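Q: Given only this backbone (809 positions), what sequence would you predict?
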């Protein structure tokens, strides 16, 4: 090595050390300065080496991270030495590589002709990705420019083949490395949402096939690069894993308060990149599918031309929401600025259909949607519960809302738990994702409880106190009360939710730490939970919480202990069975309708649309405000026929009561009081509804065929897989005059119609019924009697319950 080269090396090493130790320069300016300093040094090495070996026709290129100028303190130097078949290139390479190695700088290098470089790129996706960021350092710039242009052209031409391979590579890496946003020791580069994914998004953009949502993306990438720089300086190693023992030092180096603050910033960056990746890969898939499906025809002289593309089909999902090309989007007439519930309605519709919520829809909602009034209207609460009850589909939609700040707008307390780490190896997720995951697990347990709405809400709120100092259960109780009032629960439900959150650890801690044979243990739990309804909610919440925490938190042993405790406590409490529907007196209007139905022998109905004021004199029909009263002579199959007609007219039954009485002493009249909502916002004409009801009662309307036609007109190609229905005989002496059957199922068009058909097929008579829909869950009670008008014997009741459950499956 010549003296001048040694001097250059020493000068570079000293300048590099000064740059890395200067406290006044960090972040992007330091990375750019380090890359520039390294460029100058390598250019000098290459120029002197070329002169010494007599080499011409070469180019030294930076590729990969170095090519992008993202040179962290311990980053490798990714270099390619291009040449046009020069024999002296070996000597030239040695004179460049050895000084780098002598300084202890990591080097990833290759020596290739342009043809060899293109061939390697065609055979190896990683090589091609590195060359996309090629940057000239020394030698003949034409060599670099020509190769870079050729690689970019080939990348764009091969995009339909290469991008799916790149996506598969990203998915496999995510499977191995996990989610950056939920790891206590995340890999800043390899984990999902890390720097590798950010680089993949650049490659997608270079293909010209699709582009990532850019808002906040560069800031997220910069944050991860800054954290990696600090990690390199703290450890003195080329590492990307943010280990626990180094987090405090890294946080201090970045001027952050503590390790938790560091992790929250890293998690936020990872979520932004992961969300951008999800959106981008969906767009790539849409474009590729569109290209494959595009028809082609022969034009003049045998040339092929693209035919005009057909208008994409819009499939209605809910009022103001449609499916378009595999995403839930806002319908063209939708007006978020006048419909504050649309945010939750769109989210619930997307989750129930198993669809992602379009980023354009989310951003439009974030920019224009009016805030919900406090307390929320009933429809808003029901749509939130429908979203939470969708199971796994909830997560993707929730993340889309959170990415645009809509969750904290709906529930301000969410900000304190967002991206909050849990320094407990048992937990798989951050606090906020754990809460969503608990709701996902709770959705699968809704058939076990009489109030699935309270279970899902408690699941979402149970750890909210972790955003505050002190005991998180005590703090959470206060937050739960505030949130429950905000979203419109009544005072009794608020008390129950507060109890569930305050004592969400009671059952598992008692079951695993106390003597269950001690009567005092059972008495203490019984006094806390108060009744069997709350006990079943707390048991389901306990299981959902454990399943969401991780494998170490739930086992067969823990499940058996919990079941044992719940059984003992239930035995110490009242049955908590459903109250008898009774024979409450009809209102004046109900009596008038019943008398008219008895005299005419036909259906008589009244439709009342109550409204809630919104803004400056504007009003919109809310789900709680549409009441349908129907009176008709009592007969077998009445409720099935009436419910079928409502489903035909796209009316969703939110709640209903069925009673039968004799208003004029000439035969029983069934009085049905329905609370309904129009599936797509428009209520049917009363005259058409009355006509179809009359035809159904006469037997001249084929309800089954009409419902089948409706389903065929709007096929749902995907959707959630809800837990199976559960039909059971209510425990205890719930009624002196009838047997009570409880039906818990996923709400769906025509559900009540199918239940009514099944009960009719089982040859029982419905004396009265209580119908309620809580979010996406139907929780119904039917008071039935046998042919002799008496309650069913236990064996017969069990058989009827089994028949109805089979029919619903």
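A: Predicted residues:
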């Amino acid at each position: 090595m010549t003296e001048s080269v040694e001097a250059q090396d020493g000068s570079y090493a000293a300048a590099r050390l000064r740059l890395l130790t200067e406290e006044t320069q960090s972040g992007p300016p330091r990375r750019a300065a380090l890359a520039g300093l390294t460029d100058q040094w390598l250019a000098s090495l290459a120029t002197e080496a070329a002169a010494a070996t007599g080499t011409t026709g070469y180019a030294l290129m930076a590729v990969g991270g170095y090519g992008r100028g993202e040179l962290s303190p311990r980053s490798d130097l990714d270099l390619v030495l291009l040449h046009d078949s020069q024999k002296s290139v070996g000597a030239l390479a040695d004179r460049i590589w050895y000084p780098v190695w002598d300084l202890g700088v990591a080097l990833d290098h290759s020596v290739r002709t342009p043809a060899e470089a293109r061939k390697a790129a065609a055979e190896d996706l990683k090589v091609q990705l590195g060359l996309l960021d090629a940057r000239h350092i020394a030698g003949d710039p034409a060599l670099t420019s020509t190769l870079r242009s050729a690689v970019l052209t080939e990348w764009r031409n091969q995009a339909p083949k290469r991008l799916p391979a790149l996506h598969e590579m990203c998915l496999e890496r995510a499977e191995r490395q996990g989610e950056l946003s939920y790891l206590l020791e995340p890999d800043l580069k390899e984990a999902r949402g890390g720097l590798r994914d950010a680089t993949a998004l650049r490659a997608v953009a270079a293909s010209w096939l699709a582009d990532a949502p850019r808002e906040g993306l560069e800031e997220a990438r910069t944050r991860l690069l800054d954290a990696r720089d600090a990690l390199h300086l703290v450890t003195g190693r080329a590492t990307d894993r943010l280990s626990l023992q180094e987090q405090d030092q890294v946080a201090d180096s970045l001027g952050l308060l503590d390790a938790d603050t560091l992790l929250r910033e890293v998690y936020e960056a990872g979520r932004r990149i992961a969300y951008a990746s999800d959106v981008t890969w969906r767009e790539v898939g849409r474009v590729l599918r569109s290209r494959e499906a595009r028809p082609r025809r022969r034009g003049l002289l045998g040339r092929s031309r693209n035919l005009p593309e057909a208008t994409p089909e819009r499939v209605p999902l809910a009022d103001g929401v449609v499916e378009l090309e595999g995403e839930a989007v806002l319908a063209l007439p939708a007006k978020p600025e006048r419909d504050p519930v649309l945010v939750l309605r769109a989210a619930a519709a997307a989750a129930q259909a198993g669809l992602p919520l379009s980023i354009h829809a989310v951003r439009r909602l974030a920019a224009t949607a009016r805030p919900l009034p406090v307390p929320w209207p009933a429809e808003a609460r029901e749509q939130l519960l429908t979203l939470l009850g969708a199971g796994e589909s909830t997560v993707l939609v929730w993340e889309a809302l959170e990415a645009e700040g809509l969750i904290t707008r709906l529930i301000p307390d969410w900000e304190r738990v967002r991206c909050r780490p849990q320094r407990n190896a048992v937990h798989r997720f951050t606090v906020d994702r754990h809460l969503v995951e608990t709701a996902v697990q709770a959705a699968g347990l809704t058939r076990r409880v009489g109030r699935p709405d309270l279970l899902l809400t408690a699941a979402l709120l149970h750890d909210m106190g972790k955003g505050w100092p002190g005991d998180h259960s005590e703090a959470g109780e206060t937050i739960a009360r505030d949130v429950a009032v905000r979203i419109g629960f009544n005072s009794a439900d608020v008390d129950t939710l507060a109890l569930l959150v305050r004592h969400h650890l009671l059952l598992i801690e008692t079951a695993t730490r106390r003597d269950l044979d001690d009567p005092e243990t059972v008495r203490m739990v019984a006094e806390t939970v108060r009744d069997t309804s709350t006990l079943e909610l707390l048991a389901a919440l306990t299981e959902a919480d454990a399943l969401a925490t991780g494998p170490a938190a739930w086992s067969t042993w823990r499940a058996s202990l919990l079941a044992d405790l719940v059984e003992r406590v239930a035995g110490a409490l009242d049955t908590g069975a459903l109250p008898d529907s009774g024979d409450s007196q009809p209102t004046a209007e109900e009596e008038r309708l019943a008398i008219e139905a008895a005299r005419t022998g036909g259906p008589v109905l009244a439709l009342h649309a109550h409204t809630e004021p919104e803004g400056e004199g504007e009003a919109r029909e809310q789900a709680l405000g549409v009441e349908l009263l129907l009176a008709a002579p009592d007969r077998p199959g009445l409720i099935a026929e009436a419910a079928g007609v409502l489903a035909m007219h796209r009316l969703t039954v939110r709640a209903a009561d069925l009673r039968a009485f004799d208003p004029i002493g000439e035969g029983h009249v069934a009085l049905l009081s329905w609370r309904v909502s129009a599936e797509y916002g428009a209520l049917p004409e009363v005259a058409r509804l009355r006509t179809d009801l009359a035809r159904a009662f006469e037997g001249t309307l084929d309800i089954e065929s009409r419902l089948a036609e409706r389903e065929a007109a709007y096929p749902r190609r995907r959707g959630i897989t809800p837990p199976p229905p559960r039909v059971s005989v209510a425990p205890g002496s719930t009624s002196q005059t009838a047997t009570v059957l409880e039906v818990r199922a996923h709400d769906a068009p025509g559900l009540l119609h199918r239940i009514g058909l099944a009960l009719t097929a089982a040859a029982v008579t419905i004396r009265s019924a209580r119908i309620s829909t809580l979010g996406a869950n139907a929780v119904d009670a039917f008071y039935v009697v046998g042919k002799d008008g008496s309650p069913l014997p236990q064996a017969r009741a069990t058989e009827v319950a089994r028949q109805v459950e089979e029919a619903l499956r």
